[in-house]
Amino acid sequence: MSAARAIAWLGLQEAVRRRVFLIVALLTVGYLVLYGLGTWQAFAEVNARSRLLRGVDARIITGATLLGLNMFGTLFLGTILAVFLTLGTVRGDAERGLLQPLLVRPVPRRTLLLARFAAAALVCSAYVIIVFVIAAVITWSFGGWWPDRLIEPALSLAGSVAILCALSLAGSVFLASTANGIAVFMVFGAGLVAGLLGQIGEALRSDTLSDVATTASWILPFEALYQSALGALTADTVGLARLAINLGPFGGAADFGPLLWPWALVYLGLLGALALRAFARRDL
Amino acid sequence: MPPALAVSDLRKTYGRTEALRGVALEIGEGELFGLLGPNGAGKSTLVKIACGLVRPTAGRASVAGAPAGSLAAQRALGYLAELFRFPDWQTADELLALHQRLAQSTRGPAERAELLELVGLAEAAQQPIGQMSKGMQQRLGLAQAMIGSPRLLLLDEPTSALDPAGRRTVRRLLEELRARGVAVLLNSHLLSEVELVCDRVAIIARGQVVAAGTPAELSRPGGVEIETAAGRRVFAEAGRDDAPRIVRELVAAGEDVYGVRVLTSSLEDAYLEAVGEGP
């Protein structure tokens, strides 16, 4: 087994032994059960009244709204997992004396950082994809509604948490664990605020607000990927249904075009380069 | 063959604080080298530079001929930090297996069993580290440092948490390592320990080497003490060779001599004098 795999495995093994995954799995089951109950209730009420709401299929609005809200919940849970798996990787572990025995081995520092990123990003991406797909199946089971696209939003969510993993890992080079955790959640919150600003800007037809929101989303591409994922759920929905959906939480959805993914990858590369350079120069 | 550790004109500053101010020393193959000095003298900084955890501001440090911090240097050394911690959920055997993979050691379970036996933890191979006493963890740390048969061992206060029996185990271990040709840099506050096992000693104060040599070289003659009927008398300028003459002269002068003791200053005296805290 190579050193990179050994270090990646060490991070995952720690999460298993500390029952992080068990607790996350139990809480996620609880979350999905609640989502199922809510979805079942919502569709039961829609079906009891009329499937047509002023000419629009109420199932589409209900299904898309519920799955869109679930997408936010999934991203939030994925972010928590990402932060807790990575917040103390460098300074936190160095302050506790856990890092030094590993770094005096013939393993480049970049290997340690990249291995920890790969492990955390893999786990968090798999987590959000699985939760999103299960939620989509639940929505379809109770309401018969299926998103226009499935793979695209799932991958966008995965990309979003991968960027948050990288942010948290890079932050761990500069900040102690608690400060890093707080900083990453504040950055995550800033992204959400950018999305809300965009929604408000669209409602008020304010170009300034919309521009601020768009710029902020490019600066924090995890938010741009999230908005893009949200938009992909109803990408092919047109007409009155589209208008009705845009009045709900989908107002925050946006299409950032074909440059979003390349930019997200460049962003990851820049973050990685910054973290590696700082880590290589850091005295421990 | 290049020395196990060579350091020349090594300097390190943290902001305005000069932790090391031109340190030079060399440790040969199979040599047990003691590093002494008060807190904040720069000992740990020196050790951390040698194992690549801290970058020097100026000067050179090499391990087995390779620049400190390079992969080749890391392959040649083992390190036990003063303040270390291992994942408490791992067992002793799992920890050593991880370090075998990182050190690219191919000796497998046989090496792990041998090292655990050497530090007296053979029975604790499957015990989680979180359930071990501090002393057991320190011995496990020593076993971890020896993974991959390093040429140089850097031990920062390796006996600080050990009881007398544990210290004796470490002393025997150090002697065993010397017999195997492993060089050891022992950073310790326990002067008696260093005096007992080390071939050479360097005393560091305020970032500089202020004294170096064998423990015997550092311990200087302290005179001759003679017990007579009139009490104890110390001939401060006299050495071992002067003792018979002094006794003859006293007996000739009609004094009864009950005992003679040649005095030497201990390493502790030399240390206190070197760091400027002597009497």
Topology readout:
The complex is a heterodimer of chains A (284) and B (279).
Chain A: H1 3-17, H2 20-48, E1 52-53, E2 56-57, H3 58-86, H4 91-95, H5 100-103, H6 109-143, H7 151-174, H8 177-204, H9 207-219, H10 221-233, H11 239-247, H12 260-281
Antiparallel strand pairs in A: 1-2
Helix pairs in contact in A: 1-6, 2-3, 2-6, 3-6, 3-7, 3-8, 6-7, 6-12, 7-8, 7-10, 7-12, 8-9, 8-10, 9-10, 10-12
Chain B: E1 5-14, E2 17-27, E3 32-36, H1 43-50, E4 58-63, E5 66-67, H2 71-75, E6 77-80, H3 92-102, H4 108-118, H5 134-145, E7 152-156, H6 164-180, E8 183-187, H7 191-197, E9 200-205, E10 208-213, H8 215-218, E11 221-228, E12 231-235, H9 243-252, E13 257-264, H10 267-274
Parallel strand pairs in B: 3-8, 3-9, 6-7, 7-8
Antiparallel strand pairs in B: 1-2, 1-4, 4-5, 9-10, 11-12, 11-13
Q: Would you write up a description of this structure?
A:
The complex is a heterodimer of chains A (284) and B (279). Chain A is mainly alpha-helical and 284 residues long. Helix content of chain A is 80%, strand content 1%. Chain A contains twelve helices and two strands, in the order H-H-E-E-H-H-H-H-H-H-H-H-H-H. In chain A, a hairpin with a 2-residue loop joins strand 1 and strand 2. Chain A is globular and about 70 Å long. The mean pLDDT of chain A is 88. Chain B has ten helices and 13 strands.
Name the helicity range of chain B.
Answer: 25-40%
Radius of gyration of chain A: 21 Å
* Structure class of chain A: mainly alpha
Strand content of chain B: 25-35%
List the defining traits of the structure above:
heterodimer; A: 284 residues; mainly alpha; two-stranded antiparallel sheet; 12 helices; B: 279 residues; alpha/beta; six-stranded mixed sheet; four-stranded antiparallel sheet; 13 strands; globular
